[in-house]
Amino acid sequence: MQMGRRLRNVKWNISLCWLYAITKYRYVPNLEEILAAIDDAKRLGFPYMELEGVGPQLYTVAKNRDTIKKRCDASEVKLIDFVPVLPDMVSTDPRKRRKALKDFEIGCELGNYLETGMVQADTFHLPVHVEPPYDISKDFRFAYKPPSIKVDPEFDFWSFFEEVLVSSISECNDIAKDYSLKLCIEPRTWENISNAYALELLMREIKSANLGAVLDVAHLAAQKMPPVQCVEMLGERIFYVHASDSNFLTEDHLEVGTGSVDWENLLKALKKHDYRGFIGIDIGGMKELKPNLDVMYVNSKNYLENLIEKLTPP
Fold it and tell me: Using one digit for the tens of pLDDT, what is the confidence trace for 25-34?
């Protein structure tokens, strides 16, 4: 065991997560709202941001890739992560799964064209959920109640894990590599890969240095997983950090510095493991936050930048 490693002198760039656009505009934003969100990033002082393509909206993003890139260039905003949101990637219907994986390749083509360097895959829900915890056909909302799961005598969890989940994410990883992109997985509450332990299991199955983690602080905190512990577990396999505060009771994504997250030690843990990626401000998901959304993003950015400066030796 290595002990007493000196904290590395590392600084990070702060990005704006797509939850901003979802909260300010709607789920799913149209082209005009995508372009407006890029303008918002510049206005708020974020030179980096994410972009999503949700279900059929992925085709809208693909069709208008030139327009989106031109707006980014004009606003001096760099896209650093593209997220094709395709629930059928884990469908037990092979035809639906194959179609979703083809769409994921469209997402990788976009990531390569937009020079994001990274694409993201969600792991969605079990086929035995009565209702999906996150349904892309409905308004975005956090799932505060445990989703109901039916007991199906024919369902075998570990067969699903190996034959559907591992197989699909492994193929996504191969596609991402073909387009010179890293693939990151975000453990999210109620999904198939919901925490650091589950992600560790998935990574051990796939065995690829191209596959890494999005450390979403609020989702992990909601599951009573200390974010510092998650950094220690995942280490250099963390490709991206989503920063929002938490009360460790719900999955609300709150303004950084207003909850119970130990941000100083979290940043120290990231330094220890030589994390060199982006830290994305990821606040929103509730209509009540919309009126003060801009202020919360700017406050959170300032909070983290000040803390990073404090932890950086002169």
Answer: 999 999 999 9
Decide if 269 contacts 238 (C-beta within 8 A): no
Per residue in 128-161, pLDDT tens? Answer: 998 887 777 777 777 778 889 999 999 999 999 9
| Alpha carbons 134 and 300: distance in angstroms, whole number | 26
Chain mean position to CA 156: 28
Query: What mean pLDDT comes out for the span 76-85?
Result: 98
Please, are residues 302 and 46 in contact by the beta-carbon 8 Å criterion?
no
pLDDT digits (tens, 9 = 90+) for 154-212: 999 999 999 999 999 999 999 999 999 999 999 999 999 999 999 999 999 999 999 99
Q: Taking residues 77-83, what's their average pLDDT?
A: 98
Cβ proximity of 119 and 109 under 8 Å: no
> What is the pTM assigned to this prediction?
0.94
Contact 71, 38 (CB under 8 A): yes
Q: Give which of 32, 21, 114, 16 is closest to 69, Cα–Cα.
A: 114
pLDDT digits (tens, 9 = 90+) for 99-111: 999 999 999 999 9
pLDDT of residue 1: 43
Q: Which domains are seen in the chain, by residue range?
A: 14-311 (3.20.20.150)
